[in-house]
């Protein structure tokens, strides 16, 4: 019987949509099945309260590959990036503050308030990151070569990679430290002022259940400076109308190339016979035959829920069970009647203190202590807060005169000891609000409504196992040719015709689109 679709994609997360657009552009007949009532997965805009267009999960973009924006003409499909200047504001308890951003001279002067030496060192640090990024960047839109393969193509790719590493010269050692080491040691080596270090260090723990003194956090820091906006490295943007616009633009592109996208279409089962995929069954019992299926879900969802276990080797299943999905990120989305009036830089009209990311973590030890609590499955008594106010730059996301705040906070455990999840998360959110009010006394009374998403909620709402925002931790043992599992970094699985295309694969989490793009290329190679 002739098949209606060449490829069935499970999940309209942004990676699934990128894969759909790429395959559609190559004239393949594509069907995307999404269990939610909208596309986007963790890259969505939801109208939580009338007139408030909330990026409920991902809230800023930088990593989305420029090649993808160009190839699928996302701007024509409605994508508008709003770069932020300055890009960060860190108020301190003593009333001082640090503003940083793309304006190098302004940033130099700001850093010099705390240390002249650091102001001189910062451009050299950034240049070093730039050189390492130039080494890593070409690997993003490629399938990692397998070190266990004897194929001449893969050996050649490995050799090329080795050669490029050698060309890094002394920066090679820096690259290795970034890939494996703790962010704190890296920052201590470069800088002396606590204020600069702590501002940079928050990027090293985003989405990670780790403190900056733990190995592997330097890579998380680096991952977050690898992107760009309008060609400027390390700059994060808002998206006009909210992050969902990225997914909607991708969906529009995919549809234009002929892809069919169905929402409210949950896949219940991936059908397998004799080691080959046969199609999928939806929750309503509809069977859709297909010889090629790509899953945008993480491996735990794909293999432990959707595939019959008898279809997989036991050692593979055991490796899937061992994937690190730990997470301690809790997101609070807040509707506000006015902007926070910071003691350190007063004002309720949108100013430099409101446009970028607001870091609330006064010292490196503060972050370490916040982490110490979660080690024992306790919510941090003094959480680390990364807050953004997209409405200060993009008035379309809130009703006139009102504002939106996104608070990405750490650390809140997946399993809470000693009280109900609901009580613990509301008490933790109250603590975050108290802390924010210490810096901006009008904050509490300006709150109109809030949504609190603990790791368990993130798991349920977005299908991200353990609440891990990256579909699996971004540690060296789960990166590059080890992502998602050793021997399976080429987007294929032990089941013929079944592929992976979500953030669980190389190059990992964040709204990057690279996973879906690379997976589509491998599918096209096999087709
Ligand atoms: C709270 C939070 C904040 C974040 N902040 C940022 C940020 O600011 N910037 C950034 O770049 N990244 C951020 N991230 C990370 C980023 O959002 C994710 O890594 C990325 O969106 C993952 O995209 P994906 O397409 O690979 O997977 P997902 O978005 O997880 O998509 C998978 C899709 O599969 C669907 N699905 C699951 N099961 C089924 C089924 N059985 N049948 C059909 N469909 C199914 C899901 O509903 C979902 O739509 C954040 C994530 C979270 C959770």
Ligand kinds = flavin-adenine dinucleotide
Strand order of the largest sheet: 7-6-17-18-19-16-20
Shape: globular
If you average the pLDDT, what whole number results? 95
Radius of gyration: 23 Å
Largest sheet: 7 strands, mixed
Number of helices: 18
In which range does the helix fraction lie? 25-40%
**Number of E-state strands:** 21
Q: Between the first and last Cα atoms, what is the distance in angstroms?
A: 18 Å
Beta-strand proportion: 15-25%
Low-pLDDT stretches are none
Could you characterize the architecture of this molecule?
By secondary structure, the protein is α/β, with parallel strands linked by helices. 36% of the residues lie in helices and 17% in strands. It has helices at 14-25, 66-71, 104-112, 116-136, 152-167, 171-180, 183-190, 194-201, 217-225, 244-256, 299-306, 314-321, 352-355, 364-375, 421-439, 443-446, 455-462, 514-526; strands at 7-10, 30-33, 46-49, 52-54, 81-83, 88-91, 97-100, 228-229, 232-233, 237-239, 260-262, 267-273, 276-282, 287-289, 293-295, 329-336, 357-360, 384-388, 403-410, 447-453, 498-500. The strands form six sheets. The chain has a seven-stranded mixed β-sheet, with helices on both faces. Strands 11-2-1-15-21 form a five-stranded parallel β-sheet, covered by helices on one side. Strands 12-13-14 form a three-stranded antiparallel β-sheet, with helices on one face. The model has no long low-confidence stretch (mean pLDDT 95). It binds flavin-adenine dinucleotide. Flavin-adenine dinucleotide is lined by residues 10-16, 33-36, 41-43, 57-61, 63, 266-267, 296-297, 301, 331, 458, 462-464, 469-471, 502-503, 509-511, 515.
């Amino acid at each position: 019987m002739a098949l209606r679709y060449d490829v069935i994609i499970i999940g309209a997360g942004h990676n699934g949509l990128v894969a759909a657009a790429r395959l559609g552009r190559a004239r393949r007949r594509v069907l995307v099945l999404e269990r939610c009532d909208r596309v986007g997965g963790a890259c969505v805009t939801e109208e939580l309260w009338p007139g408030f267009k909330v990026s409920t999960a991902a809230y800023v973009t930088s990593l989305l590959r420029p090649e993808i924006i160009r190839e699928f003409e996302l701007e024509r499909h409605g994508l508008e990036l709003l770069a932020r200047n300055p890009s960060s504001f860190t108020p301190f308890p003593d009333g001082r503050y640090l503003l940083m951003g793309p304006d190098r001279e302004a940033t130099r002067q700001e850093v010099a308030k705390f240390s002249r030496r650091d102001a001189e060192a910062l451009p050299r640090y950034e240049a070093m990151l730039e050189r390492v990024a130039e080494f890593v960047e070409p690997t993003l839109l490629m399938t990692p070569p397998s070190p266990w393969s004897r194929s001449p193509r893969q050996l050649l790719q490995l050799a090329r990679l080795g050669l490029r590493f050698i060309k890094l010269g002394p920066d090679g050692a820096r690259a290795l430290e970034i890939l494996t080491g703790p962010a704190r040691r890296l920052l201590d080596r470069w800088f002396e002022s606590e204020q600069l270090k702590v501002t940079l260090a928050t990027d090293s723990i985003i989405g990670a259940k780790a403190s900056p003194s733990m190995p592997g956090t330097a890579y998380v820091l680096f991952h977050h400076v690898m992107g760009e906006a309008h060609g400027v490295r390390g700059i994060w943007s808002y998206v006009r109308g909210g992050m969902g616009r990225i997914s909607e633009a991708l969906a529009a592109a995919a549809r234009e190339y002929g892809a069919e996208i169905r929402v409210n279409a949950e896949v219940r089962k991936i059908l397998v016979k004799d080691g080959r995929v046969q199609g999928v069954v939806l929750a309503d019992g509809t069977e859709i035959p297909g010889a090629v299926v790509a899953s945008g879900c993480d491996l735990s969802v794909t293999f432990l829920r959707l595939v019959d276990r008898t279809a997989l080797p036991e050692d593979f299943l055991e490796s899937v069970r061992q994937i690190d999905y730990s997470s301690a990120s809790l997101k609070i989305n807040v509707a506000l009647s006015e902007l926070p009036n910071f003691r350190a830089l007063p004002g309720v009209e949108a100013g430099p203190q409101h446009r970028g990311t607001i870091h609330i973590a006064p010292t490196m030890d503060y972050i370490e202590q916040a982490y110490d609590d979660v080690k024992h499955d306790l919510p941090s008594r003094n959480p680390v807060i990364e807050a953004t106010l997209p409405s200060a730059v993009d008035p379309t996301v809130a009703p006139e005169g009102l504002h939106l705040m996104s608070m990405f906070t750490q650390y809140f455990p997946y399993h809470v000891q000693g009280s109900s999840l609901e009580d613990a998360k509301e008490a933790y959110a109250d603590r975050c609000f108290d802390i924010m009010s210490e810096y901006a006394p009008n904050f509490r009374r300006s709150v109109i409504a809030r949504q609190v998403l603990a790791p368990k909620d993130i798991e349920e709402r977005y299908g991200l196992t353990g609440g891990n925002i990256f579909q699996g931790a971004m540690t060296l043992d789960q990166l590059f040719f080890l992502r998602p599992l050793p021997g399976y970094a080429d987007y294929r699985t032990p089941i013929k015709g079944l592929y992976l295309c979500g953030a669980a694969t190389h190059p990992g989490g964040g709204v990057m689109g690279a996973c879906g793009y690379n997976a589509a290329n491998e599918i096209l190679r096999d087709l």
